[in-house]
């Protein structure tokens, strides 16, 4: 397997089509393009993309409220999964949040998403609760996780 030339950078409006395509494939239900665009330019959040030679292969959206953040979405193009893109995005996102002084990060993940749950655990996230019936299409519980950035 060839080594990928991956760059993590802030997302822009020019990335909207790529983000939207990945999101429609990976996240159910997907956000509208309008919601994605507002999230790219949100004053209370961040959008990061994984760029491989000008092609967006993954993205992460976080919402920040003073000392806490929520990882709203993180997704990788299906053709690029299992290559470390998600880990790179998560690592970059957490580093950025630490630099902003964020102390803890929360997220929800589908209970059946073993790959995502394993990734989050690898980065130190711990399960703190379950939200019954949180997801639709299909209906499923969400595992709520938290990571303390400064202990």
Name the descriptors.
seven-stranded mixed β-sheet; single chain; 28% helix; alpha+beta; Aminopeptidase; 151 residues
What's the total count of β strands? Answer: 7
Number of domains: 1
Overall 3D geometry? globular
Major sheet details: 7 strands, mixed
Uncertain stretches: none
- Share in β-strands: 35-45%
Radius of gyration: 15 Å
Give a structural overview.
The chain is an alpha+beta fold. It has a single domain (6-148), classed as 3-Layer(aba) Sandwich (Aminopeptidase), CATH 3.40.630. 28% of the residues lie in helices and 39% in strands. The chain contains four helices and seven strands. A hairpin with a 4-residue loop joins strand 6 and strand 7 (140-148). The longest helix has 15 residues, at 85-99.
């Amino acid at each position: 397997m060839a080594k990928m030339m991956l760059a993590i950078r802030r997302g822009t409006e020019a990335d909207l089509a790529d983000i939207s395509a990945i999101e429609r494939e990976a996240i159910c239900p997907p956000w509208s393009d309008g919601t994605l665009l507002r999230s790219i330019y949100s004053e209370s959040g961040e959008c990061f993309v994984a760029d491989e030679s000008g092609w967006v292969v993954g993205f992460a959206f976080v919402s920040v409220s003073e000392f806490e953040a929520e990882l709203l979405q993180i997704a990788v193009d299906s053709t690029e999964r299992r290559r470390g893109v998600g880990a790179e995005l998560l690592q970059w996102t957490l580093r950025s949040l630490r630099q902003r002084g964020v102390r803890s990060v929360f997220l929800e993940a589908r209970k059946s998403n073993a790959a995502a749950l394993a990734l989050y655990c690898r980065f130190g996230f711990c399960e703190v609760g379950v939200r019954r019936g949180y997801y639709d299409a299909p209906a499923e519980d969400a595992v709520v996780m938290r990571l303390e950035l400064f202990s």
